[in-house]
Amino acid sequence: MEEKEAFDGEGMLQAQAEIWKYMYQFADSMALKSAVELRIADIIHSHGSPITLSQIAAGIIDSPSPDITCLARIMRLLVRRKIFTVTPQSDGGEALYGPTHMSRWLLHGAELSLAPMIMMENDHRALAPWHYLSNCVREGGIGFQKAHGREIWDYCSMNPEFNNIFNDAMRCTARITMKAIMTGYKDAFCGVGSMVDVGGGTGAAMGEIVKVHPHIKGINFDLPHVIATAPEYGGVSHVGGDMFKAIPSADAVFMKRIMHDWNDEDCVNILKNCQKAIPEKTGKVIIIDVVLNPEGDGMFDDTGLVLDLLMIAHTGGKERTELEWKKVLEEGGFPRYNIIKIAAFPSIIEAFPE
């Protein structure tokens, strides 16, 4: 009787509804991906005003006879998620779909866009490791390696197509984060004569810093297969190598979303190499990474916890709380640090060897 009453309560009904919601939350990602693939945001924004479903369908590339009913159902969920707006017509005509702040993040070719990141994270090769989370608990290890037989960095080096998708995603997030950094941290670059971006990808971040601060001698440092696809940036030299062996010398080390890819032991080794690369008294390491706040209610606190699981799936690394950062920094030779919040999901962690 007690068990029946427990399942009949309003609280259990609400709990059931929540579980159903979380069970199918992947559909939000798939609808978002379809919007990017179909360039729905681009079609709506290009008109400059809300448009009908028929107009959206007519703008879809390489689709002479799109299924408008299917499109309508996808749009219904995206409107519910506030990606787009819909306005019914009082005269009974077709409803008009309009843009929102969120839809602007789906635009192709925009200076600030999350479209490449959406495509990468929802690529079937990036999704496969998520199915191995429970295996990671039982056996340890990295989801990506279990799914694909090798770590993500080796996989990228052997698969040029996925490597390009991955690099495009990193470039788009780099632009977003760098905009926040250049606004919220700009004065801290003034006294730096040279800087090495460790794990800098194809060099977009270093290029942005040097463009605004041309007195800095910029070094973009990453694995050789990554550097091989890097374009030229004025004032930036590309150097291929391995951060676990040695890091090029500079006044400061810049690491954006690198440390979270590695476990504590690896991070300590990276920091020790950073310490060797910078001046003992005046050098510093600038880390751009998430500082987790598991009980927080900030706009990115929930995303931080999801990103921590992404690290289990993709890299074997982790997102860290301030206390976890403090431990890693001290063991790596950086007893003093500052945390600076910026208008993005990561924070800036300034670390000093003295």
TrEMBL record:
Residues 130-334 form the O-methyltransferase C-terminal domain. PROSITE patterns: SAM_OMT_II. Keywords: Methyltransferase, S-adenosyl-L-methionine, Transferase. SUPFAM superfamilies: S-adenosyl-L-methionine-dependent methyltransferases (SSF53335), Winged helix' DNA-binding domain (SSF46785). InterPro entries: COMT-like (IPR016461), COMT_C (IPR001077), COMT_dimerisation (IPR012967), SAM-dependent_MTases_sf (IPR029063), WH-like_DNA-bd_sf (IPR036388), WH_DNA-bd_sf (IPR036390). It holds the Pfam family Dimerisation. One of its GO terms (molecular function) is O-methyltransferase activity. Residues 20-108 form the O-methyltransferase dimerisation domain. GO terms for biological process: methylation. The active site is at H260 (proton acceptor). Belongs to the class I-like SAM-binding methyltransferase superfamily. Cation-independent O-methyltransferase family. COMT subfamily. This is Uncharacterized protein. It comes from Camellia sinensis var. sinensis (China tea).
